[in-house]
Amino acid sequence: MEVVFAPDWREGVPYQRLLGEALAGHGVHVSFLANYRRVLPLRRLMQDRHCDLLHLHWPEAYYPVKGDAWDWFRRARFPLDLAGAIRRRALAVTAHNLHAHNRPDESFAFRNTAAAFRKAGVVFAHSEIAKTRLVETFSLLPERIRVIPHGDLSVTLGPPVAVAEARRALGLEGGKLALVFGAVEPYKGQEAVIEWWKRTRPGATLAIVGKAVSEDYQRHIAALIGDAPDIVTRFGWLDDAQFKLWLCAADVTVFNYRQIFTSGAANLARSWGLPILLPARLETVALDEPSPFVHRFTGLDTDFADRLHDAWKVAPDFTAAGSWRDACAWDTVARLTADGYRKALQK
Q: Are residues 281 and 334 in the same domain?
C-alpha cells in the first residue's frame, strides 16, 4: 500500500517519522509531501503522486497565514483544493487538533476543519473522549473514527541520566524544578503560570524551555518574567541530547493549555515517568488515569498550589512508566493505523 503523509513536518516533531517507519512492518510504504505550491497547493503537489491514500495530519499547513491580502483566499480555497487532491484516492485524517492552534476566530476555520474530517474515509483520534468530541462537533459517524494510542515519543531520546548529572550539565542549582517545555506560544497559557509563580513564590524554580513562536512573543515572555530569581528560560530549538537533560532534571512538568485536543508533550512526559500537572478541562488528553503521575487542577487560583504540592511528593520514575510505553508502542499504533487505511480503501 502506498500512502502519502501531508504535510511533511518531520523536522518539528518525530511523530510522522516514527509512524512511517513502523508502518513499513505492516505492508505500508510512506512518502512525505514536502514544499508548497501556489493557488491549489495540495492538488498540484498530489497530481504527480501515485498512491492509494493521502494521510492528512495538519490541514492548516495548506491555508497558511502570511499576513498579506491573500490570506482569506488561502482559507476559502481549501475544500476545493482538498477535493482535487483526493480524486481517485482515499483520505485519512489524524485529529491532532480540533481546530488549528492560535487561529480559532478566522473566517472559514470551522468549515475547513470540517471539510477534512467529513471527506475522510477514516479519522484517527487519540482518546475515546476525543472521538466523542469529533462526533458532536462535526456530526461524524462514530464508525468512521478509529481510536489509536498517540505513540511513544521517548524512543528517540534513549535512557535517562541521573538528576544530578543532568542539572550539572545544564548549570542548574539544587531544589525543586518545575518544567514547562515545548513550543512557546499563546495557546499554551504560559503567561498565567509565570504570573502565578511570581505572585506566590512557591519555593521552587520554574523553567520555560522551548522555541518561541516568534521573536516578538519571546520578548513578551522575557519581559513578563523580568528579573524573577526563580524562573529560568532556555529559548530556542533543543536537540535530543539537550532536551533529554531537561526532562531528567525536572521534578514535575506543568501544562496550562488554554485549549488542546491531543498533547504530544504530555504523552512524552507520561512516557518519561514525570509527574504531570494539567487542567481538568483538557479531558481529551488521556493519560491512563487515575495515576499517581497525573495531577489535574481546576484553576491556577483555586487548587493548583495543592496539586503542585501533591506532585512534589511523587518521584520521577522512568521504569514505572514502562507499562504506559508498552501500551503506546509504535508497532501497535502502526497496526491499528494500517487497519484504518484498509477500511478507508474499502469505501
A: no
Helix, strand, coil fractions of the chain, as percent rounded to 5: 45, 15, 40
Say if residue 131 is in the same domain as residue 188: no
Angle of helix 109-119 relative to helix 78-85, nearest 10 degrees, comes to 20
Residue 22 burial (CB count, 10 A): 21
Tens-place pLDDT, residues 329-344: 999 999 999 999 999 9
Q: Specify burial of residue 163 (Cβ count, 10 A radius: 0-12, 13-18, 19+).
A: middle
Q: Which helix (H) or strand (E) holds 4?
A: strand 2-6
Check whether residue 333 and residue 321 sit in a common domain: no
Phi, psi of 200 (to 5 degrees): -100, -25
Same domain, 138 and 218: no
pLDDT per residue as tens digits for the range 114-152: 999 999 999 999 999 999 999 999 999 999 999 999 999
Both 320 and 333 in one domain: the answer is: no
Q: Which domain holds residue 231?
A: 156-326
CATH number assigned to the domain comprising residue 178: 3.40.50.2000
Segment 148-200, tens digit of pLDDT = 999 999 999 999 999 999 999 999 988 999 999 999 999 999 999 999 999 99
Buried residues in 78-112 as b, exposed as e (16+ CB within 10 A): bbebbeebbeebbbbbbbbbbbbbeeeebebbeeb
User: Count of domains in the chain?
Assistant: 2
Distance CA 329, CA 128 (A): 18
